[in-house]
Specification:
217 residues, alpha/beta, five-stranded parallel β-sheet, two-stranded antiparallel sheet, 11 helices
C-alpha cells in the first residue's frame, strides 16, 4: 500500500457478512475525465463548459434512472452540447470513460462469493452496460455478463433509482434480508458512501482502484 493511500485504508471488519460493490472506479477502471475530453472535442466547447452541463443537466441523471431511453439520451446530448454527431460518435465519447476490467478483480469476486453474500449496485445505463458486456468482458473473462460474479446484481436504470438516494440501498437490504450493520458498501463516490452510511451500512471509500484488492488480501 502506497503512503499516499494510508489515510483511506481501513482494517477488515470480521462482523461483515455482506458486500455491496459499486462498479465503475471499484471493479471497473474508470476515467470520467476521458469522456469529458471526448465530448469537448466533439462539441468544440471548453472542457469546463462540458463539465458544467455534465453536472447540472438533468438528462444524465434521468438516463441513469431509466427515465429516458438511449435514443432520447443521444438527442439530449446533441441539444445540450449543440452538436450534430451521429449515434456512434456519441456512444464512443460516452463510453470513453470505461477503461477496462482487471482479471484480478474478477478472481477476487469469485473468491469472495464463497465467504460472503456479494452484490453489485451500479449507477449505470443501457449504453455503458452493453459496451461492458459486449466489448470489455469477453476478451478478459470469456463471458458477456457480470452477473455470475455476484449473488445478485442491481443496476440503477433497471431499478428506476440511483445512488445516493436511501431507497436504492433499502431495496437491496430488504430484498436480500441483509442487516445494515453486517453489510459493507464499497464505492468511489463520497456522496454515495454518505448515503449508505446514513442507513447504518458500513462503508469503504475507494480512492484508488488498488484499495479493493488490498482490503481483501
Amino acid at each position: 500500500m502506497g503512503p499516499n493511500r494510508q489515510n483511506t485504508f481501513v482494517l477488515k471488519d470480521s462482523s461483515v457478512k455482506n458486500l455491496i460493490f459499486d462498479l465503475g472506479g471499484v471493479i471497473l477502471d474508470l476515467s470520467v475525465d476521458t469522456t469529458l475530453q471526448a465530448v469537448a472535442k466533439l462539441s468544440g466547447l471548453d472542457k469546463n463548459e462540458v463539465v458544467h452541463h455534465f453536472v447540472n443537466a438533468q438528462g444524465f441523471m434521468q438516463f441513469e434512472k431509466g427515465l429516458i431511453d438511449e435514443h432520447a439520451f443521444r438527442d439530449f446530448v446533441r441539444e445540450t452540447y449543440n452538436v450534430t454527431a451521429t449515434d456512434a460518435q456519441i456512444d464512443h465519447a460516452w463510453n470513453a470513460m470505461l477503461l477496462g476490467l482487471p482479471i484480478a478483480k474478477l478472481h477476487l469476486l469469485t473468491r469472495l462469493m464463497s465467504t460472503h453474500q456479494t452484490f453489485l449496485l451500479s449507477n449505470t445505463n443501457t449504453i455503458h452496460l452493453r459496451f461492458i458486456n459486449e466489448n470489455i468482458l469477453p476478451p478478459v473473462a470469456g463471458v458477456t455478463s457480470l452477473d455470475g460474479y455476484f449473488h445478485k446484481s442491481y443496476y440503477s436504470h433497471l431499478m428506476k433509482k440511483r445512488k445516493p438516494d436511501a431507497e436504492i440501498f433499502q431495496q437491496v437490504l430488504e430484498e436480500n434480508n441483509l442487516k445494515a450493520e453486517e453489510t459493507l458498501f464499497l464505492d468511489d463516490n463520497k456522496a454515495n458512501i454518505e448515503g449508505a452510511a446514513a442507513l447504518g451500512i458500513k462503508t469503504l471509500l475507494v480512492t484508488h482502484p488498488d484499495i479493493v484488492t488490498e482490503y481483501f488480501r
